[in-house]
Amino acid sequence: MQTQEEMVRRARLETGIGRRRVYSGKYALSHLMYCTHCSDIYRRTHWRIRGEKHVVWRCISRIDKRKNNTDCPSRTLYEKVLHAAVSNCC
Questions:
Q1: Structural domain of 70
Q2: Distance (Å, whole) CA 66 – CA 79
């Protein structure tokens, strides 16, 4: 029964600005990080800088700013730094 309740909760996830977002439990930090500027969630994405691959987390409203006409000033967070911070705190 608790599993069913959790599935319903995840299906109804909304951000602080009232937008519905699809839950993805694929990564440890999914739906745990929220933007302090616009209250939207962070999404994991890949960057290629000078041929080197980097995994970063960015605010969804910043990623989709062309679709939403928003300009969120949140910073990009490198996954290596996030994992180091999480592993050092606990």
A1: 2-89
A2: 24
**pLDDT value at residue 25:** 65
Q: What is the pLDDT of residue 15?
A: 57
Question: What is the domain count for the chain?
Answer: 1
Q: Name the amino acid, one letter, at 17.
A: I
Report residue 90 as tokens. 């606990």
Q: pLDDT confidence of 86, banded at 50, 70, 90?
A: confident
Determine the pLDDT at residue 56.
93
Residue whose token pair is 């180091």: 84
Question: Tokens 């910043």 belong to which residue?
Answer: 62
d(CA 74, CA 59): 7
33 vs 10, 28, 44, CA distance in Å? 15, 10, 11
